Amino acid sequence: MKKCTVVKAMAAVSAVTFAALSMGCSKNNDATSTAGASNAGKAEDKTIRIEGSFRGEEEARFQEIVKIFNEKTGYNVVYTGSPDFEVQIQVETQAGTPPDIAALPQPGTMKRFAEAGYLKPLSADVVGAIDANYASVWKDLGSYKGQVYGVFHRVNAKSFVWYNKKEWAKRGYTIPTTWDELRKLEDKMVADGIAPWSVGFESAAATGWPGTDWLEDMMLRTAGPDVYDKWVNHEIAFNDPAVVKALEYCGEIFLNKKYTLGGPNNIIAQNYGDSVKPLFTNPPTAMMNRQGNFITGFMQDEIQANLEENVGVFALPGVDPQWGTPVLGGGDQFVAFTDKDGVKQFLTFLTTWEACAPWARIGGALFPHKTQNFNDYGNSLERDIAKILVNATVFRFDGSDLMPTEVGSGSFWTGMVNYVSGAESAEQCLKTIDETWPR
Fold this sequence. Notes:
Layout: H1 2-32, H2 36-45, E1 47-52, H3 56-73, E2 76-81, H4 85-95, E3 101-104, H5 107-116, H6 124-133, H7 136-141, E4 143-144, E5 147-148, E6 151-157, E7 160-164, H8 165-171, H9 179-191, E8 195-197, H10 209-222, H11 225-232, H12 241-254, H13 263-269, E9 286-291, H14 301-304, H15 307-310, E10 311-315, E11 327-336, H16 343-350, H17 357-362, H18 380-391, E12 395-397, H19 399-402, H20 405-421, H21 426-435
Parallel strand pairs: 1-2, 1-3, 8-9, 11-12
Antiparallel strand pairs: 3-11, 4-5, 6-11, 7-9, 7-10
């Protein structure tokens, strides 16, 4: 109760502070206006408030996007980032004081707001821009009950396999594009006397979360997106045969001492950030590491100094051809709480590459736009990742992030550890997790 009270208090303070700042800005505008009350009203109509969780460097980069729009159109888009955004936006909507636009990091939040009637469906103009500039999967992810509500902008992805480019060239390894090709490559690496994979689950109190990403990736590859959605929403049991099958695919790698550096015990003990480093030791002790686009920041300094020359990346291959090569990740969708003048224009702007290129050039972000110029990315690694993302016909959000906390940030983590350690079989592990799902 005490923690809950503190959070609510912080949210209330944030909301009050924001309101006070907004009032202060309004007073300053009124004070400096020389055109009378009617012109002040017009100036106020040009202001579009946006809230989200971008802060620090991310906020600075997004503000550059906002600046381009304001200079082009004459609108006054004002973005405010908050560390308490996800609590704050709940408070504001319930109080009837939401921003004009919000950048929501969780698709479930969009659906709850749409169900409650807080959101405005996107206009035909914005939907047309989405159709023109995105693969259909992004429109689907931004839709609820037949209405389109969300425009995706900056996204991230996890379904990547990293490798030592120079070492692979020396050994004559080629990138696998199917699961069968991956299995053959693993066996060749074992025959060459080196572990195919370096895997790390250790993450202090969050130990096990990298294993959840592996299982989510395999669910998309073996069961497909529709079954994945049912699993995430507990419309099928956590230990459904489809989930058991996906986990056993993971087990082909995790439980095979020849396939993973140090075997199962090392998977549990090795930190997820350190797990990429064996690929770049001299000599390397493993050949592949599956992780998100953030993992480059954990590579050795000398490797980071020249990523393009040292590091290669490819998509974790698909299993069933009907789903291609799915991508697991996350992203921010912009939704409208009002239909005031300027909202439609800004959301349409976000669908264009002009609204993405400045951030792409700096680095640290991916975009799903079909219309993008890949040459705008600062290095070949980000270009390759962006191409994988754009070409994906299936994209889904990280499942554990969408599950109830006691599962997604609890029993799912520990269950993956228990499975790899041998404490539980695939069936036992998944049954135990299912029993923790809130009834």
